[in-house]
Amino acid sequence: MGRGGNRARQVRRWILRLLALGLAAVLCLWVISLYVEGRYVDRIIPRAEAPQKPVALVYGAGLAPGGVPSAVLAQRLDAAIDLYHSGKVDTLLLSGDNSDRFHDETRAMVRYVLDRGVPASAVQEDDAGLSTYDSSVRAHTVFGVREAVLVTQRFHLTRALYIANSVGIDAWGVAADEGRPRTRRYALRETFSRVLALGMVLAQAEPRYPSGRTLPSSR
């Protein structure tokens, strides 16, 4: 009985230690996420008050059936088009993932803005924007962007601003879903994504394709 009691106490101690470690890890992730979320939150401004910048950087968000921009991506593109037509930006840098030959995201983005009155001379495309981090780093190193307005949804904007400002872009942000109710749908994913963003910034990670304006095998 005594030996069994000691073993039970040891098991309980290990369980408590594991629970404490798990709680500490969750708390650490939460603190890091809050730091990234809050670091440049003051740079999110209403679209009408966006500063005049040379470039609006638009992040890809997938395609719908038929190869057209998804609803989320169309919302981003509409906001960027509005910035261009209102004279807030001179150029749209459309950054998407074309790593799959059957998923030409950037080309769909280009067609969308051209069909809505943005001239081809005001459009640049980066088809190696495989992630928010890659898009931001390549905007700076490949396309020479030093100042920009970032265009994406509010849930994503704080992470994009953190990365862009950390890699050398003087970036401000406009929420594509401005005026709409905020959703917690992406909250858990963004918590982990912000932690990853901090790690990549601190490590000065290279994007998957660090040079060239298009993927090596594209078109």
Automatic annotation (TrEMBL):
Residues 55-191 form the DUF218 domain. The keyword S-adenosyl-L-methionine does not apply. The keyword tRNA processing does not apply. Pfam families: DUF218. The chain crosses the membrane at residues 14-36. InterPro entries: Cell_Envelope_Assoc, DUF218. Keywords: Membrane, Transmembrane, Transmembrane helix. This is SanA protein. It comes from Archangium minus. The lineage of its organism: Bacteria, Pseudomonadati, Myxococcota, Myxococcia, Myxococcales.
